[in-house]
Design a protein that fits this description.
Blueprint (H helix, E strand, L loop, with lengths): L1 E3 L3 H6 L28 E7 L5 E7 L1 H5 L3 E6 H5 L5 E3 L5 E3 L5 E2 L5 E7 L2 H10 L1 E6 L6 H4 L18 E8 L1 H10 L2 E13 L7 E7 L4 E6 L4 H12 L9 E4 L15 H13 L3 E4 L2 H7 L2 E13 L5 E11 L28 E9 L6 E3 L7 H19 L3 H8 L8 E2 L5 E2 L4 H11 L2 H13 L3 E10 L11 E2 L2 E2 L2 E7 L5 E5 L8 H13 L6 E5 L17 H27 L6 E4 L2 E4 L2 E7 H10 L10 E6 L8 E10 L6 E11 L6 H21 L29 E5 L17 H18 L13 H10 L7
Parallel strand pairs: 2-15, 13-14, 16-19, 17-18, 26-27, 33-34
Antiparallel strand pairs: 1-34, 2-8, 3-7, 3-9, 4-8, 5-6, 10-18, 11-16, 12-13, 12-15, 16-17, 20-21, 22-32, 23-24, 25-26, 25-31, 28-29, 29-30, 32-33
Helix pairs in contact: 10-18, 14-15, 15-16, 17-18
The structure holds cytidine-5'-diphosphate (CDP).
The site of cytidine-5'-diphosphate has 24 residues, from α14, α15 and α17.
Length: 791
């Protein structure tokens, strides 16, 4: 077992072992968007709404224009002239770039101030005054569907309510019938709170429109540069920005975690201004803007039910969700999956019946629904199934580990078809849980817990045995705005045997520079240090859908292996020619082909590559490069068994995570150190919503914790020692048997922690607490149950 103390900031970023040191994209020093400094560059700052719902009566810009250095103030009315005041969201809803008459959430962009320095832009922003007519906002999603609630999206013709869409999957009739007759039915109402992607760098861009060549270079914090370029061309093609005239460059972006997939108004305004004034325009959010206005994650209200037998067999589940999307559905989900991969909520258990339904509603809150370090709503799904499974174990009086062992899908039953239609590729859930239990002597802990309970002390043990679903996707089912979700690799080996490989994905700290080079090295025998890896420049990299939802290894990683294998096939032909033998007489060992039975007759990959440029067989295409666009036949299904042990102070209700063991199974591991870094960071981002993070709004739509003073991001101080390990169940369909891993810990950790805390409180009849579970929440729950005789 490996132990490490880490902070969200460090662990969340993972490690880029071969960090790019050159500044090839950027004129100036450094590799971040904020490092971009271009001649004549202007700076943009944004005026934001103090109200959650208000009519704009007047925007007064005169004083701002008098501020030295301010060159322009842009409003929605200005953008309207170019039809750029609205933009599409990734879920085909519509979002204001700048409002023309109404603001829909607190901190919404109202106007942009352009100036010669960032300080002048900020002074200009302070000098803009806006006259509002506040209206009563809709904040509670349950009230949003009330017939008396105002229709928020009156911009949509014929819209008569705040309902966005209804989604359902499973067999309602069969599930309802099961719940009528089952011996045991348990039910809990859960809220998976609205949280924020607190990446180290905020969002920003430099839009550099070159009037002479009618060309836009967009340096931007994006996880999906190619898709963004296509969206820019679709939105702004009518003003001349067609796709070949747009270059998107995503340098080091300082973490993404799903929050840098959407297009934010700031990007669009910067492009529009650069286009109009013909100068580069830089926009970098500050920390509070990022926290208050950018896409949120989660915010699912879930009614979870489970039906089973008295001896602990799970028979079926039912989930009803109310999804609060804010004022527009700006989720970053594949188009056909409005609830993302929520339908994986049947979990790691073998049963045949489920029914899931979701209604999405508009409220006066910021838009979003991004996949914060999770595969499109898997976190919500895993929380629901893992919590309700524990609730069931409590109800039937079984140990939650035994009950899980009893219900797991058996390893010989893979591939396994879930009641919602997913084909789980492989897994060995029993082995994972057993390994986690052995790591902390589970039975001893239960004995200790019994002794402590007898003394009135609060100790809890929580388990989460989750199945993830990552690697979107097979293109037959997965697209974003119609763009199919494959991914790509292009390998070019130079005559001297050194290579450059480019990808459609975009690392944000996950270490692709290392692991992609390792995949190619393994397949071709070229040392990893001789392979340069590049991502994030649409002018050079092959088209791909980007990095989020742990899709890079399952898609682009596979593309790298297959492109390398194409090259190995060519190498075999060249080696046969050079050695004057038949291709069938050759054998491969990493780095060379040799003649069967005569290993001294060999050609190294470097010799073969050199021949591809200097002495290739006549009739064969010269050079040594290959590209592959990989369309996965299925998703990959990583899994994990996490166990958390907590002690809760009986007086202060302070929670101490004493131990946390995480056993992950991501198939074949490319780089154990990178995987470990991913798991540490992910676990810290898992403890975050379990114990600390939640965006809170009052009835007027004011955010009550809009800075890091109040929105508690865990640091090394709050993080326990993570004890990590793994089991290996290769994916049968992935070329190198790997599954994704980056998000498993963020997905798996919250229910393990919540289950541990609730387990500590079960002697008081407490069966559920919503995350984040704070000492105060525990105090209130215990008080309600009469736990404090003198309180
Ligand atoms: O899409 P993203 O890079 O965020 O997620 P991922 O595919 O889960 O990969 C995260 C990092 O872990 C990458 O550098 C992967 O190559 C590495 N990894 C690995 O070494 N072995 C695996 N089985 C899975 C991922």
């Amino acid at each position: 077992m490996i132990q490490c103390k880490t902070s969200k900031a460090i662990g969340g970023m993972g490690h880029s072992l071969k960090r790019k040191e050159d500044a090839r994209f950027i004129q100036g020093k450094g590799n971040y968007v904020d490092d971009v400094k271009l001649p004549g560059m202007l700076y943009m700052d944004i005026v934001r709404s103090p109200y959650a719902y208000a009519k704009i009566k007047k925007i007064n810009i005169e004083e701002a224009l008098k501020v030295p250095g301010v060159v322009a103030v842009v409003t929605g009315r200005d953008l309207e002239k170019y039809n750029l005041h609205w933009m599409p969201t990734l879920m085909s809803d519509t979002q204001m770039v700048l409002p023309t008459d109404t603001v829909m959430y607190q901190s919404q962009e109202v106007a942009a101030v352009i100036a010669t320095t960032k300080y002048a832009a900020r002074d200009g922003r302070e000098a803009v005054t806006v006259e509002y007519e506040p209206m009563k906002p809709v904040i509670d999603p349950f009230k949003s569907l009330d017939p008396a609630a105002p229709v928020l999206r009156s911009d949509k013709e014929g819209k008569k309510d705040n309902h966005i869409w209804n989604w359902k999957v499973g067999d309602k009739e069969k599930t309802d019938a099961l719940f009528e007759t089952a011996d045991v039915v348990v039910k809990e109402q859960m809220h998976i709170p609205r949280i924020h992607v607190a990446s180290i760098e905020t969002c920003g861009c430099v839009a550099d429109y070159d009037k002479v060549n009618n060309h836009l270079t967009m340096y931007m914090t994006t996880q999906a540069p190619h898709a963004i370029r296509t969206v820019i061309a679709l939105v702004a093609g009518h003003v001349g920005l067609t796709e070949e005239k747009v270059r998107v460059i995503a340098p080091d972006i300082g973490g993404g975690f799903g929050g840098k997939v959407p297009v934010y108004p700031g990007y669009v305004i910067a492009i529009a201004v650069s286009f109009l004034v013909g100068k580069p325009v830089k926009w970098i959010e500050d920390r509070s803007e990022n926290l208050q206005a950018d896409s949120f994650a989660r915010d699912y209200h879930i009614t979870a039910e489970l039906a089973g037998t008295k001896d602990g067999k799970i028979l079926g589940t039912r989930f009803k969700i109310l999804a609060d999307h804010g004022y527009t559905d700006a989720s970053a989900n594949p188009s056909k999956f409005p609830t993302g991969m929520f339908s994986i909520a049947t979990g790691s258990y073998d049963y045949g019946t489920t029914y899931m339904e979701c209604d999405a509603v508009y409220t006066n809150k910021p838009p979003g629904g991004v996949a914060y370090r999770c595969s499109f709503r898997v976190t919500e799904a895993v929380h629901a199934i893992e919590r309700i499974t524990d609730r069931f174990a409590f109800e039937v009086g079984k140990d939650p580990a035994d009950l899980r062992m009893q219900n797991f899908i058996k390893k010989e039953d893979f591939p396994w078809k879930s009641p919602t239609g997913w084909i789980y590729d492989s897994g060995d859930y029993h082995a994972g849980l057993q390994k986690a239990m052995d790591a902390l002597n589970y039975n001893d802990l239960r004995r200790e817990q019994a002794e402590k309970r007898a003394k009135g002390e609060l100790m809890g043990i929580g388990i989460s045995t989750f199945t993830e679903i990552v690697g979107a996707g097979p293109s037959k089912d997965f697209d974003i705005l119609g763009i199919k979700m494959f991914d790509s690799a292009e390998i070019r080996v130079h005559p001297t045997g050194k290579a450059i490989a480019r990808f459609g994905t975009k690392s944000q700290g996950q270490g692709h520079e290392t692991t992609y080079a390792q995949i190619i090295a393994e397949e071709l025998g070229i040392p990893a240090e001789n392979i340069a890896i590049e991502e994030g420049d649409t002018d050079t990299a092959p088209y791909g859908l980007g990095t989020y939802a742990s899709r890079s290894t399952p898609t682009a990683g596979a593309a790298a292996a297959i492109a390398a294998r194409k090259l190995r096939d060519k190498a075999r032909k060249i080696a046969a020619y050079l050695l004057e033998v038949s291709e069938d007489d050759l054998e491969w060992e990493p780095g060379k082909f040799f003649v069967k039975g005569a290993p001294e007759k060999a050609k190294t990959i470097q010799e073969i590559v050199f021949a591809a440029y200097t002495n290739h067989p006549q009739g064969m295409e010269a050079g040594f490069e290959a590209t592959h666009y990989y369309d996965p036949p299925n998703l990959t299904f990583p899994s994990g068994a996490y166990i958390c042990v907590v002690d809760i102070d009986r007086e202060t209700c302070e929670i101490k995570v004493r131990r946390f063991v995480a056993i992950d199974d991501c198939g074949n591991i490319i780089n154990p150190m990178i995987v470990q870094g991913q798991v540490h960071g992910g676990l810290t981002q898992g403890i975050a919503p379990a114990m600390y993070e939640e965006l809170i709004y009052d009835e007027s739509g004011n955010i009550l914790n809009g800075t890091f003073m109040d929105y508690l991001v865990p640091t090394a101080v709050e993080s326990p020692n993570w004890e990590t390990g793994h089991t290996v169940t290769p994916s049968p369909h992935h070329p190198i048997g790997a599954k994704g891993v980056g998000e498993s810990p963020t997905v798996g950790a919250p229910p393990a922690i919540a289950n541990a805390i609730v387990d500590a409180l079960t002697p008081f009849g407490i069966t559920h607490l919503d995350i984040p579970i704070t000492p105060f929440k525990i105090f209130k729950a215990l008080k309600e149950k009469g736990a404090f005789a003198d309180a």
